[in-house]
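Recall the central idea of this unit: under ordinary conditions, the amino acid sequence of a chain determines the structure it adopts. In this exercise we apply that idea directly, starting from the sequence alone.
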Amino acid sequence: MNKFIFVSCLLFVFFFFKPNQISAAKVFQVSNASLLQIGDDNRVYPVRIACIEVHSNKEVATVEWLKKELPRNQKVNLKPLSFEDGIMVAKVISIGSMRDIGEEMMSQGFALNTCGIDEVN
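Accordingly, the structure predicted from this sequence is:
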């Protein structure tokens, strides 16, 4: 467990606090209806969109919508909430529109809110 916490903290520090250069995270791929491949010019990490459960009958439509909203190299801000099985679970905010992608998915009817009211805001 201590190794997992250490690796998670190390990953967080290297991902968000690059000592020589600061750049926004970029979307490299929409893997499925809730999992993105996000990184910078050196590394790519899987990031699960926080606080959502995608309707099973809308997964294909959700992936297509995500690909339009988050095309390759779209810059995003991440607000990490946890790590699950080595995957960061985070709020994904599209830079430019400053929209929370998870909240947009819920408002579009693609997903249900799985977090408490306080955690969504």
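Residues 39 and 53 are 23 Å apart (CA to CA).
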